[in-house]
Every structure is written in structure tokens, then in C-alpha cells.
Amino acid sequence: MKLAFLGLGVMGYPMAGHLARAGHEVTVFNRTPAKAAKWAEAFGGKSAATPSAAARGAQIVLMCVGNDDDVRAVIVGADGALEGMAAGTILVDHTTASAQVAREMNAAAAAKGAAFLDAPVSGGQAGAENGKLTIMVGGDAATFAKAEAVLATYARAVTLMGASGSGQLTKMVNQICIAGLVQALSEGINFATRAGLDPSLVLDVISKGAAQSWQMENRGKTMIADKFDFGFAVDWMRKDLAICLAEARANGAALPATALVDQFYARVQAKGGGRWDTSSLIRVLREAP
């Protein structure tokens, strides 16, 4: 298929690469043109100077940018993707953003005669690089059916969650759960250390029982070693949790633990850890009296 991919960050760059390797004709756009040129050279695709130019002639336009404002700028801003999209084109947004902006972009696409899917991902940079992302999608079932095989190029699971915005709402649930898990793991490791136990041995034992989690398996050892220069940045997590908390205020859901963990992440940022992995929550506990 003829595709466009907009946004070549740590997620978008490898995701677009998987599409090219699968034999699709891919044109990319990035706000830093040099990065788009580098991608085109590496994967044999093309780069374009604007989102609209990249989207022109594409059957499906995919994107992964930073936040709500970036989504609006890339889709409906000057030289935005919709300017270059013909009727019948599908626009897929992998950005973790609000459900509100997803619904706005769905309406904007519909006015153009195009279709929109909000499709945030989970799995982090490693999942993007290995083509093992989990994608939660909001939108029309018929549109999803047309795009599903393309999304599966870099995913191990692609699931339609409901109407427009449902993908973003599901991603919020994902982030709420991760925040609580990382805080609990931080408390457990810190407790084990202060109790005089070998934390590595403790995790080895309890990971074989009901306490096991992805965070324990993939972040436990690096948390014990105090290594955080990789992974999903605290700055990004705070952006995501702000979206969760705003949605909770709108729908009446209580998120007391999430709100508390968000403040702990603010303390990590204050220590200069905005780009540290989210597992750096343990630093707050280690440095407590």
C-alpha cells in the first residue's frame, strides 16, 4: 500500500521502518527534516517537507507525535495532513493524547470525507523496535477492518475498543495501572533493602507468584541497580497522567493513588529526572529519611 508516517521519534521511527520492510511504499514527515532524510536513506522510502505533502496520495496516513497540540498542528494546522488527504483516506493517530482531541480529529476527518482512528500504543521503545506493540483502537469498525493488517505490521495485538476516543480511554487505563504497579514495586524493593534482605533474591522468589508483573520482570533488576537512563521518560508519564486525571475529573472516577504517584513523579522531575525511566520512582523512597 501507499502509506505516510508523520513523526519519527523513538516510537515512530522504528514503526515506520517496519512498514517499509513489509513492502509498503512509505513517505515520512518529521519536524526535523534531517531525521526524515536519515529514515528515507535507511529504509528506502521518501521524505516530505510537510504533513500535507507526505499524506498526498496515501491510502493510510499514520502518525505518532507528542501531545494534543501536536496532534492538532499535524492534522489540521497549516499544511496539515488533512490538506493532502483525499476522500476515503484513513488517518491513524498513535499519539497518546486525550479522548477529546481524538473526537475532534474524527470530526475533522469526516468533514473531509476521510476516516480517523485513535490508536495509542503500549510496549515502549523496545516494543516499537521489535514490532511487538499492543494497539488499542477507537473508531468505526469498517475503518478498523481496512487498517488492521497494516497496524499488525508492528504489533502483537490490535484491538478495536469502541467508538472514537475509546482507544485513548483504554490507554489511560493502561497508564493508571502502570503508575500503581511501579510505585508498589518501588516500595517493595526499598522495603526489602531496608529490612536487610537481598532484593534481587526477593524479586526472584516473588516473581514466581501472584506479585509477578511486566514491571517486575523488566525493571526490577535495573531499579535495584539504580539505573534509569533508558525507557519511558518521567516527563512523558506525567503528560499521560495529566490526561488521565483530567478525564477522571470529567467522568467522576476516583484516582487517589494515581494522583499521589503523579506528585511523586513531580519530585523525580525536581531532582532533574525528567528523562529518566518511570521506574526511577524508587529514587524518591531511597532518599527519604
Q: Quick recap of the structure?
A:
The chain has helices at 12-21, 33-43, 51-55, 68-76, 81-84, 99-112, 124-130, 141-151, 166-194, 199-206, 214-224, 234-251, 256-270, 282-286, and strands at 2-6, 25-29, 46-47, 60-63, 90-93, 115-118, 121-122, 133-138, 155-162. It is of the alpha/beta class and 289 residues long. It folds into two domains: 2-162, 3-Layer(aba) Sandwich (Rossmann fold); 169-286, N-(1-d-carboxylethyl)-l-norvaline Dehydrogenase, domain 2, CATH 1.10.1040.
List the helices and strands and how they pair.
Blueprint lengths: L1 E5 L5 H10 L3 E5 L3 H11 L2 E2 L3 H5 L4 E4 L4 H9 L4 H4 L5 E4 L5 H14 L2 E4 L2 E2 L1 H7 L2 E6 L2 H11 L3 E8 L3 H29 L4 H8 L7 H11 L9 H18 L4 H15 L11 H5 L3
Parallel strand pairs: 1-2, 1-4, 2-3, 4-5, 5-6, 8-9
Antiparallel strand pairs: 7-8
Helix pairs in contact: 9-11, 9-12, 9-13, 12-13
Describe this structure in words.
- The protein is an alpha/beta fold.
- The protein has two domains: 2-162, NAD(P)-binding Rossmann-like Domain (Rossmann fold, 3-Layer(aba) Sandwich); 169-286, Orthogonal Bundle (N-(1-d-carboxylethyl)-l-norvaline Dehydrogenase, domain 2).
- The chain has helices spanning 12-21, 33-43, 51-55, 68-76, 81-84, 99-112, 124-130, 141-151, 166-194, 199-206, 214-224, 234-251, 256-270, 282-286, and strands spanning 2-6, 25-29, 46-47, 60-63, 90-93, 115-118, 121-122, 133-138, 155-162.
- The strands form two sheets. A six-stranded parallel sheet has the order 3-2-1-4-5-6, sandwiched between helices.
- Helix 8 links the parallel strand 8 (133-138) and strand 9.
